[in-house]
Amino acid sequence: MRLIPTEIVVHILKELDDEKDLIQCTHVCRQWSYHALEQLWYKPSITRSPRCLSFFNTLQLKQHSFPYTSFIRRINLAPLASLVNDTHIASLANCQRLERLTLANCFHITDVGLCNLIDVRTGIGPELVSIDLTDVLNVTDKTILKIAICCPRLQGLNLSMSRPHFDITDVGIVALAQQCPELKRIKLNNCVTITEKSSIALALYCPYLVEVDLMNCGVTDRTLQALFSHCRDLRELRLNQCDAAESLLTERVFLDSALANNPNYYEQLRLVDLTGISSINDHSIAILVEAAPRVRSLVLNKCFKVTDGGILSVCKLGRYLHYLHLGHCSQITDRSITKLATECNRIRYLDMACCIDITDKSVVELAKNLTKLKRIGLVKCSNITDAAIQALSYHSMSLERVHLSYCVKLTVPAIT
User: pTM, whole model, 2 decimals?
Assistant: First the structure.
């Protein structure tokens, strides 16, 4: 065993998926034990309270049989969110090679614990590449400023909140943008005090962004103009404004941006969420589709100005389109949906809730052509009848869910 080169041993151990097999390998010899433990501790699986306590106690020991803290590269403490506090994460400061840290829903954690953990001298800041602070409700600009100073290699930051959060402002995000030029992914949904200052700074200083989530942030025309001009690698863009008091985007938002008259400008763009942006119209969609012809997921929920013209533009996405949300686009009719059914036949998810002019004709065409359809939403499509449901049941073999609330013309026999 000792004659086997180290790189061969490491390669063999990486092929083992079962934790029990790796544990068995630790008994072969010291060399195998070292590399097997390195694999086991690369991303420790911590899902139960007793194991959690044992893990943190081990990290705090001054002497180890093996350098466990240097093995750890990724930690996910979300399964223990209700238990983890500042004291626990303080022990992670010994993990000097830690790159990815997930603290989603760890609501006991505060700025004090996070700042001590990230500190450039005594913490994990210099090596940190990604940190997930989803629903860490006590986090404020103090932590964001600390991340900006101590984490120059940062590529991903998730600050998603399930309810409006007021303690993260432009002060922290602008500093972050200026100090972390390698940033690729940032999620700020429900950080409601964020304005265009933050998003413009991100566009200017972080040109490698591939995922941006500004749900319910202060998004303006200048925001999108900056993003489209400077961030050419964007793959996911979420601008959901469903809870915003009023959308600040105008009808010229796409017309005055780099998207206009630039076919295939964003070939890599795969997801666009424009929920609740009332200024989005058919012309906006035509520009978007022309510039980003391979969008896979498109959300136009509550884009009230969208008509058949806009959906006919969406049809140009063809086989690339898999997910389409048209909820509350009440001006859409059978004319565009029947065309969509034939042109975009790889759609898996389609929501047409409150599209009140949709009839059986559309649903029948969708059932015939969308052979991979898994979910369809027809809530409050009051013109569909039993014929539509019969077509779905006959043609759509892959269908998993159908939403039919308030479809008042349906009868019991069609449903059963």
Answer: 0.90
